[in-house]
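Let's inspect a concrete specimen:
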Amino acid sequence: MQLTCIYLGMKKTGRQIEKLFHQQCWCWGADIRNGEPNYLLSYGFVRIPRPCPDCGSSRYYFFRDGLHIHLWAFGAVWQREGGPLLCLKRYDRAPSLLSGERPPDCIHQVSEFEQGMKRIPRAEMQQYAADFSRFINFMAAYEAFVNSSAPGGYRERCVKGWPHKCMDGRKMEQAWRSLAEALPKDGSDTKAA
């Protein structure tokens, strides 16, 4: 089967991305709420507070190896040096483009995030596969960091009792790695096995 879109023409992969990213956002929140250490800060993120107490969400910013990442409770934006701004909103199955009208450092609320989102047509999705794979690999690397830095069972405790849990917390790193492997790396069509 020729692959023609980022989620490989398989609805199952889109659902996996949606559920796993929702859980990832929950876990990032847990990493912040759990206090010392804040694992996002330990990993290298910088916290940018919201402009006022009732003004949306704080933003976490990270830059490494040519990749810029911005995180909020409602989603993420990433960009490789010289590349397009891509975003994934919590509960979405595939990335969107983010217009440059409102840069990520001026986004504090989900409505501002949504205003800049431009859905990528399926016919064009494949050209963004490598950038999406890079973001997914970042999430796998972050989970590996948490698994090696946090006390045993930490990620399990983060999702214990959370009603939207899609998998055991300790399996998230491998789930992201598997999804990254399933995506085309260079934007070209590949054959599914």
